[in-house]
Design a protein that fits this description.
The chain is of the alpha+beta class. It is built from one helix and two strands; from the N terminus they run ββα. Helix content is 37%, strand content 16%.
Amino acid sequence: MAEPKIVNSIEIDGKEVPFESLPEEKRKELAELIQERIMFLAGYKRKTG
């Protein structure tokens, strides 16, 4: 039995775009933004300074 294929995608300007098709820098920027938002919802705040 074949393993299921998982494709991560993100909606940009109303269009669904495969995450892997984005440039490396944009993927990193979006990953950090998603992580920050999830951590904020869990009650964490980033320390700066």
